Amino acid sequence: MHDSLPIFIQALDSGTARLAYQLVQSSLNGCLYGEHALAALSDAARAPSRESRALVVHSAGSEDLLGVAVFGEVAGTLGTGKLHFVGATPSAHLQGVASRLIDAAIADLAKNAARFVLAELPDDPLIADVRELLICNGFVEEARIPDFYADGIALVCLRREIDGDR
């Protein structure tokens, strides 16, 4: 990971919501699995809560968004966080912005007593880069449901422990 890019991470607010929505849509690039991420972002923009919140990242001195993370706690559980979406512009991704957003989201969840974080995603080659990003950031596959999305496309559940976090 490259920490050379000076960035500013903040909670999603009314001034950044439209740009965040555009960045998420652009990152999904028509992906069939994007509805959940967009719905979670909409919830975070409309009424941030323990279950639904988002972080955005700017480069120092710029209002342009470089990345978005949408996350929250799983309702009705004790200590379970969920990462709904993380993405960055292509150039920011190369500078480690997505990894830094994952760490910031997990730190926020840890402040609220989360013990681990789940990420659920399709095991589809179209989004293999997302799975690789999560694995490179300490997530491990915990479960797999074959043919969940379509024939040959499993639902993969990845988990990252927070206690004793990297």
How would you explain this protein's 3D organization?
Helix 1 packs antiparallel against helix 2. Strand 3 and strand 4 form a beta hairpin. The chain starts with 6 loop residues before the first strand and ends in a 5-residue tail after the last strand. It has a single domain, classed as Gcn5-related N-acetyltransferase (GNAT) (Aminopeptidase), CATH 3.40.630.30. The protein is of the alpha+beta class and 166 residues long. Helix content is 32%, strand content 34%. Strands 1-2-3-4-5-7-6 form a 7-stranded mixed β-sheet, sandwiched between helices.
CATH architecture assignment: 3-Layer(aba) Sandwich
| Strand order in the sheet with the most strands | 1-2-3-4-5-7-6
Classify the helix fraction into a percent range: 25-40%
- Number of beta-strand segments: 7
Integer count of domains: 1
CATH fold descriptor: Aminopeptidase
Basic shape = globular
Q: How would you name the oligomeric state of the polypeptide chains in this document? A: single chain
What would you call the structural class?
Answer: alpha+beta
Q: Termini distance? A: 14 Å
Q: Name the beta content range.
A: 25-35%
CATH homology superfamily: Gcn5-related N-acetyltransferase (GNAT)
The overall average pLDDT, rounded, is 89
Low-confidence stretches: none
> Helix count?
5
CATH class, please? Alpha Beta
Please trace the helix and strand order, writing H or E for each element.
EHHEEEHHEHEE
Q: Strand count, sense and closure of the main sheet?
A: 7 strands, mixed
* Rg value: 15 Å
